[in-house]
Write a structure and sequence with these properties.
CATH class: Alpha Beta
Organism: Rhizobium multihospitium
Protein name: Sugar or nucleoside kinase, ribokinase family
Largest sheet: 10 strands, mixed
Number of strands: 16
Number of helices: 10
Shape: globular
Distance between the termini: 36 Å
Order of helices and strands: EEEHEEHEEEEHEHEHEHHEEEHHHE
Structural class: alpha/beta
GO molecular function: kinase activity
Strand content: 15-25%
Pfam families: PfkB
CATH architecture: 3-Layer(aba) Sandwich
Strand order of the largest sheet: 6-4-1-10-11-12-13-14-15-16
Helix content: 25-40%
Keywords: Kinase, Transferase
CATH superfamily: Ribokinase
Number of domains: 1
CATH topology: UDP-N-acetylmuramoyl-L-alanine:D-glutamate ligase
Length: 314
């Protein structure tokens, strides 16, 4: 029987403009526009559903065509979608401008609706039941700090593990007060710097700083450079596999989180779990979408053969 995952977080519209040639700051750049449903929590939910998990998604949404687009994508991915719909509001959106090589130039996040996901919504009977029935809770820092704290508290009361996706340097700080209640955190270097307020030359110093904040397990991605991951008593490093045909890096971190969590739920140790995460991310960056529609347990296993073994640092 498939394990259950409850996702509480961002499910909105991603708009991405890609510049065709060299980026010319402060000028008009020829390019193309693309729009799809996205959001950290939603991307991870779709990935996990494609990897065979029973996924339930709870997120705020507007009563508009964008909200319907998100609902349709959730259904297509096999997610049990249970949104809070605010008929008079618009669904949040994230608008990014990408360079020709897929790297981010600048982005604008219109996320005001997420402020309405307040802690008292966790007291709704259907939400309480979802906490009781799940094997893992995954949230993201699109939600308010007090709601993230309430999620961690309810999960602890129910005896359920919590994973969190950092989203951005500005948003990850919302998780700081509740880090002791988070079992797994996925973040990049900029987010690690924002959370710990340090920028060390040796990324292992982030591990010490995050542990000091109460975090038990974390994965810090560093682009094409080796990621650093840690548990209570282990620190590992992993060089991501080289991907020649990168289509779009959007969603890579969300897919890495999905791959790691799928391996953790299957009973793998940290060193093996980060290999699954790197494999999932490599599949995703070859897709023009924020999630790879061809992601499957079989494809993940195939890609895993191209991922090196993790190095145990301590």
């Amino acid at each position: 029987m498939a394990k259950k995952i409850l996702v509480l977080g961002g499910a909105h519209i991603d708009r991405r403009g890609r510049i065709f040639g060299e980026t010319a700051p402060g000028a008009s750049n020829p390019g193309a526009w693309f729009e799809e449903p996205g959001g950290g929590g939603f991307n991870a939910a779709r990935n996990l559903a494609r990897l065979g998990f029973d996924v339930k998604l709870i997120s705020p949404r507007g009563g508009d065509p964008s909200g319907e687009m998100v609902a349709e994508a959730a259904s297509h991915a096999g997610i049990d979608d249970k949104p809070f719909v605010f008929l008079d509001r618009k669904t949040p959106s994230y608008t990014a401008i990408l360079e020709n090589d897929g790297n981010l130039v600048i982005a604008l996040a219109d996320m005001e609706l997420y402020k309405l996901f307040v802690p008292r919504r966790l007291a709704i009977r259907a939400v309480r039941d979802a906490f009781e029935e799940t094997d893992l809770i995954l949230c993201d820092a699109n939600l308010p700090a007090e709601t993230l704290g309430a999620i961690a508290a309810r999960a602890a009361f129910c005896g359920k593990p919590v994973a969190a996706i950092a989203i951005s340097p500005a948003k990850v700080v919302r998780l700081k007060p509740s880090l002791a209640g988070v079992d797994h955190l996925f973040l990049n270097e900029a987010e690690a710097a924002a959370l710990t307020e340090i920028r060390p030359e040796d990324p292992r110093e982030w591990v010490n700083a995050l542990r000091a904040l109460g975090l038990r397990n974390g994965v810090i991605t560093r682009g094409k450079r080796p990621l650093i991951a840690f548990s209570r008593d282990t620190v590992v490093s992993l060089q991501p596999p080289v991907v020649d045909d990168v289509a779009d890096v959007t969603g890579a971190g969300d897919s890495l989180a999905s791959g790691v969590l799928s391996a953790v739920l299957a009973g793998h140790d940290l060193a093996e779990a980060v290999r699954h995460g790197a494999a999932a991310a490599a599949i995703t960056v070859q897709s023009p979408f924020a999630t790879a529609e061809n992601l499957s347990p079989e494809l993940l296993k195939t890609m895993l053969a191209l991922v090196p073994r993790a190095e145990i640092l301590s």
